[in-house]
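re: ur question from yesterday

yeah so i grabbed the chain u mentioned. its 568 aa long if i counted rite. heres the sequnce exactly as i have it in my notes:
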Amino acid sequence: MHYVALATDFDGTVAHHGEVDADTRAALERLRARARKLILVTGRELPSLCRHMPDLELFDLVVAENGALLFDPRTKEERPLAAPPPERFAARLRELGVEPLSVGRVITATWEPNETLVLQAIRELGLELQITFNKGAVMVLPGGVTKASGLRAALDALELAPLNCVGIGDAENDMAMLDMCGLGVAVANAIPSLKERAALVTRGERGAGVAELIDQLLADDLAAADRDAPRAQVALVMPEDGREPIPFTAARESLLLTGHSGGGKSSLTLGVIERLLERDFQCCILDPEGDYEELEGAVVEGSAKEPPKPDRVVDLLRKTDGHVVVNLLGVKLADRPAFLGGLLPELMALRARIGRPHFIVVDEAHHMLPAEWDPGGAAVPAELKGILFITLRPECLSPRVLDGVDRMLVVGDAPGESLARFCAARSLPAPGEVPEIEKGQALLLDARDGAVQRVAVIPGVGARRRHQRKYAEGRLRDDLSFYFRGPDAKLNLRAHNLTLFVHLGEGVDEETWEFHRRQGDYSRWMQDCVKDAELANEVAQVEDSEASFTEARAAIHAAVERRYTAPG
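ran it thru and got these structure tokens back, copy pasting raw so excuse formatting
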């Protein structure tokens, strides 16, 4: 369930001439019975609304006065969301002969053509007020107060994100609300400009249109509408012609990313995560190596010294709208499948309640979701959607994972081999001729129809910077560090980052240095552990050259310092 809330306008949308008919009311009740939240967002003042719809308890919350007042129908609590204008404003409007004139808790309202006199009063008194129009109504509110701002306050109170809310309306003052929602819908009787902005227009008018939308929502969670909804789409990769990005429906697709170390998986992944954040999607990232700790705007749970707590992860996701990184360095490799086996059902249950996290990233998925992993249908949904699985060995993944993959991305060397292994494990026809790819490119396989195409990776803006900080200044775990041991293992000097590698390398003896050089240990470490193919290739050339000990060491250190933070 992605759309867990419906926000509806009142007049001209759910109501006609101030009345909600029996069929519309029944549809609203069906929605509430299916554990969805229902929010009424209206320009009306609360006393007027209560006269026309005394049973407001049908709604979880009411946003009145065009976003200025939040009302809880069960507790009867009223919470103004902005300060009202000074009393002299209404007094000046009366002096100017503005009629009719209504003054609410925050809103001041009249009708066209009184907007000229209203603007005169605002200028005379030097007030920071804005005028909003609604089919002839003239509403005056503090700056920044709209139906969108009011709805956001309501969603915050319910611990929901705008992406998980469907908004429906009919008039000018509904535009900001529809733009903010994950899916904006206009009823058939809406003004033309709102229909143009909406992702979906109902066939029915007013209440019949709302009931139509509710039936679609309950039938398939509006999955079909999401395929054409801009808010639901996120750029995945670029086609070869470079025109428009190839998108994916983040909350409804599962992706698989594979390729050899140093092939560009991290760059592609970080780019996707950055674009998800830009579009207000919340990610939960299972991070086995501390690669995502410095992700901008993310909260990290767990460390190398302290394993993450599943209940803390769920609490962070519920209370924040940013990314949550689950650092697994403190969890032993053999214990990670059990850890995920406990956390994943909790994440799925949270999604069912509030629609978040919108997207989950599982790095090194072959360790955490091995072939024997199958928690059963009661623990997790039959189809695992809204997830990116990253692995070196797709054939080692659980069939539950493989069967749910919609699209697969392959980077690095020998992409055809990775495709063939996936297709064999998934019992799909073997791919035909597979195009070669270069650095910055990938192969995209659509598992639903077998189509394969070469695409360009869209790297993250901060991906390289984070990579540099981690490997230059961070602390790699024991099995990823470099060890200067020498031919007889007399030494055991650990370099847990590149800065320390250069520093220790300056001090070791020639015999130790040359021993590792001749074995290709430096380039192998930079390829497999530092995950920098360019640096590894340059270092490998130095290792194979006829350069002296002093020249080779200086050349390798210079290559590191050009790409990463220099020591000292």
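noticed a couple things. The first strand starts at residue 5 and ends at 8. also DSSP finds 21 helices and 25 strands in the chain.
anyway ttyl
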